[in-house]
Design goal:
- The complex is a heterodimer of chains A (about 260) and B (about 350).
- By secondary structure, chain A is of the alpha/beta class.
- Chain A has a single domain, classed as P-loop containing nucleotide triphosphate hydrolases (Rossmann fold, 3-Layer(aba) Sandwich).
- Chain A is about 40% helix and about 25% strand.
- Helix content of chain B is about 75%, strand content about 0%.
- The radius of gyration of chain B is 23 Å and the shape is globular.
- Classes of the chains: A alpha/beta (about 260), B mainly alpha (about 350).
């Protein structure tokens, strides 16, 4: 059984068919990239899988469980969590508090427990795990800093840390290296690779930076106008005439030397 | 260790101890003063204090709901649900005070639960207007329905409060009853505010989509905040019903709701204590302005506009500034004042 299975998925916004009749499977332990020209439906696909948007038709399964129609919080509970293109964080809180709040699923507290304070032991364990995650992501030095005071690269890393705090099976990263400098990009790719190798988390990522995608992903799905255009290992994708056709004229992809070669 | 060093160290230790225990000392002092005042106040001022305690529960429970980012316009009506609940239960079931008050809270919580189900579909300004409409709907039911709500005349002859044979209705016992209920309510809400549940509420205000995606069931937690707030508004309503002996729909109209908003806006909602500070300041201003009775609505309108424009964070946003000023040596303060003045002068 595949970890993630998308069956005949469609999403319509008024007259626009953002995703049309899409079939896709992701196996456990993969690092899967999703690419495609602007407006191909990549982010919409993420929104539908994570529950932010409801599909017009079709279904999504995670570990054989049907996710369709569930709220994002329930999907997170089943092990599917996504990050955002923007720097999403809880602005009034410190870095450590942000990660602690994101441990919500593993730190259930009753109203009564909150009032009498029975959850201290659990909160200790929680904070320990949050610190572990920050250490791994490389944000330990900033743990007591207010989240909005972090640099752009660190804020994006915090987004990944918060997603990890939910203990996911599959992590969906929406343009994880967008707006990062080369050093930050390098660090983030490293983190993503370790997440798969050491934390056994399956990765699904949308990214525009072709160098990162080609270097990181073992398999790639290409979307165009909401349909699957091609799927395969990076070498196949690069030499696929249909893919080249779809990207023609798009300067940020075909203009890239790595890709043309 | 040399002697002066030792002195410096103990000095430092006591300074940090002072900083840690200063809020506790302040709280203990306030509580002690309020206990003494219970006996010493003149009747009129004791009445004021009782209303003040009831209002403390109102502002604190209102602030609890605003931590999720939902500004409700139905809170006073939920208080009314508690008042009507208490009046009807006390009158017709003849239950004692100790049972009626929690039941009034539960009544308001049930009405709150009925409100929040449709309100979850709205946010921001939509929530504000929709909650107002729902509140008015309930208030109009009280106005129009004779049985059991008594229509425009409301409910009269609410039995006086008693607990295990003790009469609570004389001013001094009632002062302490309200004082204790207020302390319990505020303590519970303070604990909630600092708990994981409180943080979940605040995270929804900060970024509801992110909160949902990291596993916080936003609809559930918004409901929880609204219903908990309604419960405490109901408790406040029960105290009000017992104090007045009769209630009618006018007690829970728009004017009261607007005052509640003024208290909260003047104090600010970021900190737990902000709304209470706002309530204290506005209550005092309200009493001082008694001679200017006709001008009062105009004045408070002006106050609201002033705070929204010049101090949108409320009085609480001044706390850190005052704290900093107290910690800075006077010489530096003078320097700062001079820089401020020169920049101000150069601007004009």
């Amino acid at each position: 059984m595949s970890l993630l299975e998308v069956r005949k998925l469609s999403k319509r916004f008024g007259g626009l068919l953002a995703i049309s009749d899409l079939d896709m499977t992701v196996e456990e332990g993969e690092i899967r990239g999703i690419i495609g020209p602007n407006g191909a439906g990549k982010t919409t696909l993420f929104n539908v899988i994570s529950g932010t948007h409801k599909p017009t038709s079709g279904d999504v399964f995670l570990n054989g469980d049907k996710l369709t129609g569930l709220r994002p919080s329930r999907i997170a509970g089943k092990g599917g969590v996504r990050t955002f293109q923007r720097s999403a964080m809880f602005s009034d809180f410190t870095v450590l508090e942000n990660v602690s709040i994101a441990r919500h699923l593993h730190a259930r507290e009753s109203l009564f427990g909150a009032i009498v304070g029975t959850a201290r032991g659990m909160e200790k364990a929680n904070e320990g795990r949050a610190l572990e995650i920050l250490e791994f992501i490389g944000l330990t030095a900033f743990k007591d800093e207010l989240a909005p005071n972090l640099s752009h690269g660190h804020q994006r890393a915090l987004g990944v840390a918060m997603a990890l705090a939910t203990e996911p099976h599959i992590l969906m990263l929406d343009e994880p290296v967008a707006g990062m400098n080369p050093a930050e990009t390098e660090r983030m790719t490293d983190i993503i690779r370790k997440l798969r190798d050491e934390w056994n988390i399956t990765i699904l990522l949308v990214e525009h930076d072709m160098k990162t995608v080609m270097g990181l992903c073992e398999s790639i799905t290409v979307l165009n106008f909401g349909k699957k255009l091609a799927e395969g290992v990076p070498a196949e994708i690069v030499s696929n005439p249909e893919v080249i056709e779809a990207y023609l004229g798009s300067e940020d992809i075909l203009g890239d030397d790595d890709f043309a070669a | 260790m040399s002697a002066p060093e030792e002195v410096a160290n103990t000095g430092l230790a006591s300074a940090t101890a002072l900083r840690r225990f200063a809020p506790l000392l302040l709280l203990a002092a306030v509580l002690a003063v309020l206990c003494v005042l219970g006996f010493e106040l003149r009747p009129y001022h004791r009445e004021l204090a009782i209303v003040f305690f009831i209002n403390v529960i109102m502002v604190t429970s209102y602030r609890l709901i605003t931590t999720t980012g939902d500004w409700s316009f139905a809170h006073v009506v939920l208080m009314g649900a508690g008042s009507y609940g208490a009046a009807l239960i006390a009158k017709h079931a003849g239950l004692p005070f100790g049972v009626v008050v929690p039941m009034a809270g539960i009544t308001a919580a049930i009405v709150g639960a009925a409100f929040i189900i449709p309100l979850l579909r709205t946010a921001g300004f939509g929530f504000f207007i929709a909650s107002f409409a729902m509140g008015e709907l309930v208030r109009l039911i009280w106005v129009k329905v004779q049985f059991p709500f008594g229509g425009t005349r409301g409910i009269i002859n609410i039995p006086s409060p008693e607990i295990v044979g003790l009469r609570l209705s004389p001013p001094v016992p009632f002062y302490f009853t309200c004082f204790i209920v207020m302390l319990a309510a505020v303590f519970i809400m303070w604990r909630l505010d600092r708990s994981r549940i409180g943080n979940a509420w605040k995270s929804i205000h900060s970024d509801d989509l992110l909160a949902e995606c990291v596993g916080i069931d936003v609809a559930r937690y918004r409901s929880l905040a609204f219903i908990t707030g309604a419960f405490f508004a109901g408790i406040a309503g029960a105290l009000l019903a017992y104090r007045m002996g009769s209630i009618d729909p006018r007690n829970f109209d728009l004017t009261t709701m607007i005052y509640l908003i003024i208290w909260v806006v003047v104090g600010g909602t970021t900190t737990f204590w902000g709304p209470i500070v706002g309530l204290v300041v506005v209550t005092i201003a309200f009493e001082w302005s008694r001679p200017l009775l006709e001008w009062r609505p105009l004045m408070f309108g002006g106050v609201l506009i002033f705070f929204l424009i010049f101090l949108p964070g409320g009085l609480e946003s001044l706390f850190p500034k005052v704290g900093n000023a107290l910690r800075t040596p006077p010489g530096q303060q003078f320097q700062r004042l001079r820089t401020w003045f020169t920049t101000f002068a150069s601007r004009t």
